[in-house]
TrEMBL record:
The protein's Enzyme Commission number: 3.4.21.89
CDD domains for this protein: S26_SPase_I
Species per Swiss-Prot/TrEMBL record: Eubacterium callanderi
UniProt GO BP: signal peptide processing
Enzyme class: hydrolase
NCBIfam families linked to this entry: sigpep_I_arch
GO MF annotation list: serine-type endopeptidase activity; signal peptidase activity
Membrane-crossing residue ranges in chain numbering: 131-150
GO CC entries: membrane
Protein name: Signal peptidase I
Domain of life the protein comes from: Bacteria
Keywords recorded for this protein, A-Z: Membrane, Transmembrane, Transmembrane helix
């Protein structure tokens, strides 16, 4: 019974993640504590694309850092329409971030957070993690279907 529940939950999670991705939402693992306690390390945040014009003072945003590859999520402390840029600061950081975030580096805004789920995402990103998660999935599938077959076999032997 427990294995069936776990299998159903896993399938629902896969469907949810796939559906959100199709809608353009991006799941991202939280790697640093700069936005704690709202987004704890190891959480999975779901970022929805937003237009720069819709971002307000105090909104958390996800953006590409100056290197153009690294993503960060911080809170907007200033919006400068003239230069089309934001000033940001991590909630747990003492000072504002250096420099500004131009509107074109905006990815979106986090809509919700699933604590600890980011660790699974990080694990799935590595070769070892894929093997571990694949093996765990196989075990779940076997646990879901094997006990029923064993009971049928035992019942037919008793007759």
């Amino acid at each position: 019974m427990l294995s069936t529940i776990l299998t159903v939950l896993l399938c629902l999670m896969i469907l949810l993640l796939s559906g959100l991705r199709l809608l353009g939402w991006i799941p991202l693992a939280v790697l640093s504590g700069s936005m704690e306690p709202q987004y704890p390390v190891g959480s999975l945040i779901f970022v929805r694309p937003v237009a720069a014009e819709d971002v307000k003072l105090g909104d958390p945003i996800t953006f590409y850092m100056a290197d153009g590859r690294t993503l960060a999520t911080h809170r907007v402390t200033q919006v400068d329409e003239a230069s089309q840029s934001f000033k940001t600061k991590g909630d747990a950081n003492a000072v504002e971030d250096q420099g500004t975030v131009s509107f074109d580096r905006l990815v979106g805004s986090p809509q919700f957070c699933v604590p600890l789920a980011g660790y699974v995402s990080i694990l799935a990103g590595s070769a070892q993690g894929k093997m571990i998660l694949g093996a765990a999935l196989l075990v779940l599938v076997l646990l879901a279907f094997l006990p029923g077959r064993l009971m049928k076999t035992n019942a037919s032997k008793r007759k």
